[in-house]
Design brief:
Rossmann fold
Length: about 220
């Protein structure tokens, strides 16, 4: 994407009522007004709150919002020029139960209050295979601790990925730390009885992986 196009999207994001872009200082200094008030002040309802972390173009967040109008969805990514597409689609189609937050995933516990979130989706994250990249892996122990903080006690995390490495790493970590695995499958499209919300929504890249016969893996778990 050219820098002109990116700038145009950044400018347009600023006009979208469904896009929130707090500064790092605002989050870290606890002056972010929506923390603890997403339902009342942003969505104006008391419905369950679901996050998609590293939402990319926002396709999954928008599709989930359409499928579950009784829930609120927030797609989170640091790349605003990417989720511009999802935000624009939601406005064009008048999908009121989805919003987008531009921030780093590391700051998630500054953007949401303790026990504020009902569910988390992590869809096709970068597996960060190199050892020195472990700290950026979105299911590592320090990220799980942040998720636990913002999730309700019964809250769940969903990991959907095309990376066998990420799937295996996460399963190993969950088993080793005594977390509760509710469902795990290393090829959801080939397995009968796979959860419908996992197989009925596909991102653009996911449909490409499927055309290449790449298995899509899925884990649903609770952090203990």
């Amino acid at each position: 994407m050219g820098s002109k196009n990116k700038l145009k999207r950044f400018k347009e994001n600023e006009t979208f009522k469904n896009v929130i872009q707090p500064g790092r200082d605002e989050l870290v200094n606890s002056s972010f007004k929506l923390k603890g008030h997403w339902r009342t002040d942003f969505f104006k309802n008391d419905n369950p709150l679901v996050l998609e972390l590293g939402c990319g173009k926002g396709e999954y967040s928008v599709a989930l919002a359409k499928k579950y109008p009784e829930k609120n969805f927030i797609g989170i990514d640091i790349k605003g020029a990417r989720f511009w597409r999802g935000a624009k689609t939601a406005i064009e189609e008048q999908i009121e139960n989805v919003g987008f937050l531009r921030t780093q995933i590391e700051l998630i516990d500054h953007a949401f209050a303790n026990n504020e979130v009902d569910e988390i989706w992590i869809t096709f994250p970068d597996p960060q295979i190199k050892y020195k990249r472990t700290k950026h892996r979105m299911t590592n122990a320090s990220f799980l601790a942040k998720y636990k903080q913002i999730l309700k006690p019964e809250g769940v995390v969903n990991l959907k990925t095309d990376s066998e490495f990420m799937h295996g790493y996460t399963l190993g970590l969950l088993h080793g730390s005594g977390h509760e695995i509710l469902y795990a499958n290393h090829n959801v499209y080939k397995q009968e009885g796979s959860p419908e919300e996992v197989t009925s929504i596909q991102t653009f890249y996911e449909s490409q992986y499927l055309e290449q016969n790449k298995p899509i893996t899925y884990i649903r778990f609770k952090i203990k």
